[in-house]
Design goal:
The protein has 271 residues and is mostly beta strands. Helices cover 6% and strands 52% of the residues. The strands form four sheets. Strands 14, 15, 16, 17, 18, 19, 20 and 21 form an eight-stranded mixed sheet that branches. Strands 1, 2, 3, 5, 8 and 11 form a six-stranded antiparallel sheet that branches. Strands 4-13-12-7 form a four-stranded mixed sheet. It contains three helices and 21 strands. Strand 18 and strand 19 form a beta hairpin. The protein is globular, with a radius of gyration of 20 Å. It has two domains: 2-168, Immunoglobulin-like, CATH 2.60.40; 173-270, Immunoglobulin-like (Sandwich).
Length: 271
């Protein structure tokens, strides 16, 4: 209910927030939102908002056995650069024996856009060409939108504005630097990730934990990965996908506790 309320407010965003028009395509609505001002030499957080219709869902970076991750192609002024799309933690859906990951409620996908110190313009136009897929148990409908939000040069306080709705999302915190000897290895039909956690990190690795792999075609999505922690030793054991080929150089995993109050992103290197 809270997310629906925030979505309703979004087109009426305050003077500290700039927003594009809301575009409906397929079974979802999309809009782009950013702080109303930027500072030279800083990063600007832009949010893509997607709202699927009731009983439909959009997809995470790894859609699972079916579906398609939302993609954005940015058009920016010369000198500006966009970072990767940041997805909040997903939910799991099952239909006809297929397991997928995504969102049945409004979701905010974030991107940090860097504005160099020597950028001279007083205003920037941020354009996004967005593609997504919205599905339910009966089928899928593609959607797309061309969105634009304009941002003016201003003070740092406005540039750091927390966008409406974003603080209600849980985004994985990359804690890979707090792992020691983080390796990914094959053990027969299983993929095993292991590492030693730093003292302050192992306090977060408690209780019932779930592991979501960011890359597709690595593990069987219908086989729940086993996450175990003994002392400071972390181990994640998952069944390899039938489409598993060569071990990638890195394997990224999102760890989500049962209560979904926080989340960790951990990267393991090929052994």
């Amino acid at each position: 209910m809270m997310l629906a309320f925030l979505w309703a407010l979004a087109p009426k965003a305050s003077a500290q927030v700039s927003q594009s028009e809301v575009v409906k395509s397929g079974k979802s609505q999309a809009s782009l939102m950013a702080p109303s001002s930027f500072v030279h030499g800083g990063d600007l957080t832009v949010a893509l908002m997607l709202k699927p219709e009731k009983n439909w869902h959009n997809y995470w970076v790894n859609p699972g056995d079916s579906g398609m991750a939302t993609t954005v192609k940015w058009t920016l002024p010369e000198g500006l650069s966009a970072g990767p799309l940041e997805f909040p933690i997903p939910h799991q859906f099952e239909s006809s024996g297929l397991v997928s990951f995504g969102y049945s409620e409004p979701v905010f996908l974030l991107t940090k856009i860097h504005v160099p110190e020597d950028f001279s313009a007083a205003e920037i136009m941020i354009k996004a060409s967005v593609s997504w897929l919205t599905c339910n148990d009966n089928g899928c409908v593609p959607g797309d939108a061309k969105l634009q939000v304009d941002v003016k040069a201003g003070d740092a306080e406005n540039a750091d504005t927390v966008l409406p709705g974003v603080d209600s999302m849980i985004y994985p915190s990359d804690q890979s630097a707090k792992l020691k000897n983080a390796v990914a290895a094959e053990e027969g039909e299983f993929l095993v990730l292991s590492a030693e956690a730093a003292p302050d990190l192992d306090k977060l690795l408690v209780g019932e934990l779930s592991a979501f792999f960011e890359s597709n075609a690595i593990v069987e999505h219908g086989y729940a990965a086993k996450v175990s922690v003994e002392g400071r030793q972390l181990s994640i054991r998952a069944k390899k996908s039938e489409f598993f080929g060569e071990m990638p150089a890195e394997v990224a995993v999102v760890i989500i506790p049962k209560e979904r109050a926080n989340s960790l992103r951990l990267v393991f290197s090929k052994k």
